[in-house]
UniProtKB/TrEMBL annotation:
Lineage: Eukaryota, Fungi, Dikarya, Ascomycota, Pezizomycotina
UniProt xrefs under InterPro entries: HET (IPR010730), HetReg/Transcr_Mod (IPR052895)
Heterokaryon incompatibility domain boundaries: 64-162
Protein name as annotated: Heterokaryon incompatibility domain-containing protein
Sections of the chain in a coiled coil: none
Pfam families named among the record's database cross-references: HET (PF06985)
């Protein structure tokens, strides 16, 4: 399966990312990891695979890492990206572009390189945000994009930067991130290890009511590391106390509470756990249905379109239909296993 190079943008160009005319609606587009990490010449080199058969199992199918993120960055990611001062504007067809950062893109590329993959998929780059026809086709196949990925990297605070995993992030609240978290067996969270640092004067120990209180971190670069999402999910419920000690006397200095917060809290997190850790198809589907009422999206219809692939249901992507009609059709097509009857008691009331 061959690719066609369609666009390149260098950081030194200091221009917006925007599409020309040499692309095909609905094509699979990926960009190069090595180009992003080219010393002194960071660039986005985008290629396109046309007439992709998503059911193909050939080794010729491109291996790529998909990025899952929130369009709205966390306060910490905003701070980090502003300090990095490597702005990248994305043309989205409105008066103002959407701003991300070359800094965060390179962190994602480092993680993909660490996993030994050369290609990345990111909606900002690989979907023409100004084309309604391309976006409709891409939304239709979004589930396949994550399912066929060799790995998925989650950036909870947004794609502009990795943040410490103990800090809150908006990722769990967004509709489309559910697919990014649950469809690919190799799904990782990219973040910074925010635990206290061991120094010449101080060391620390941790205690928790939960075994395996902290997920194994696969170090990528300095404090930057990747963690398997299931391991990180378990850590969000650990009651962790970190005690600092003087190295020479072993005298306690301070004790702090430490919590993994980047995956969020509340109904959205428990629904995600039901999907990741389900012991039966009914449990998994119940978690998927619960997510409709515990996440949000700019367009209400996306609450349905973002889960249809998870339920193995095909619906035509049509934003002229209202959400209620779409939910009824989704329920009808999954009536053989009516998990929508068991969405749980801890959800906010919705008519």
């Amino acid at each position: 399966m061959s690719s066609i190079a369609i666009h390149t943008l260098r950081e030194s160009d200091q221009r917006r990312w925007t599409y020309g005319s040499n692309y095909v609606d609905g094509a699979l587009r990926l960009f190069s990891v090595s180009s992003l990490l080219s010393c002194g010449d960071a660039r986005i080199s985008l290629s396109e695979w046309r007439e992709v058969d998503w059911n193909e199992k050939s080794e010729a199918f491109p291996s790529y890492v998909a990025i899952s993120h929130s369009w709205t960055p966390s306060a910490e990611v905003t701070r980090i990206s502003q300090n990095a001062n490597r702005q990248l504007d994305i043309e989205i067809g409105q008066d103002s572009p959407h701003t991300i950062s070359w800094h965060g893109l390179q962190q994602a590329a480092l993680a993909a390189q660490h996993l030994k993959y050369e290609l990345l998929w990111l909606d900002f780059i690989c979907l023409n945000q100004t084309s309604a026809s391309d976006k409709k086709l891409q939304v239709q196949q979004m589930g396949y994009l994550y399912e066929k990925a060799a790995a998925v990297i989650i950036m909870p605070g947004g794609v502009s930067a990795a943040q410490a995993i103990e800090l809150e992030a908006p990722w769990i609240t967004r509709a489309w991130t559910l697919q990014g978290a649950t469809l690919c067996p190799k799904t990782y969270v990219l973040g910074l290890d925010g635990r206290p640092k061991i120094t010449d004067e101080m060391h620390w120990s941790a205690s928790s009511m939960s075994p395996g209180w902290f997920p194994p971190i696969d170090q990528v670069d300095g404090e930057l590391g990747i963690m398997e999402i299931r391991d990180l999910f378990h850590s969000t419920y650990a009651n962790i106390r970190i005690t600092k000690f003087k190295k020479d006397t072993n005298e306690p200095i301070d004790t702090i509470q430490w919590t993994v917060n980047c995956l969020g809290r509340g109904p959205a997190l428990s629904a995600l756990g039901a999907i990741l850790l389900a012991e039966s198809p009914a449990m998994r589907q119940a978690g998927i249905w619960r997510s409709i009422w515990s996440r949000t999206s700019k367009y209400p219809q996306d609450m349905v379109f973002s889960i249809m692939h998870l339920l193995d249901v095909h619906l035509e992507v049509d934003y002229n239909r209202n959400m209620g009609d779409l939910i009824v059709e989704l329920a009808r097509k999954t009536s053989a296993l009516p998990s929508w009857l068991d969405i749980g008691h801890d959800l906010p009331f919705s008519p």
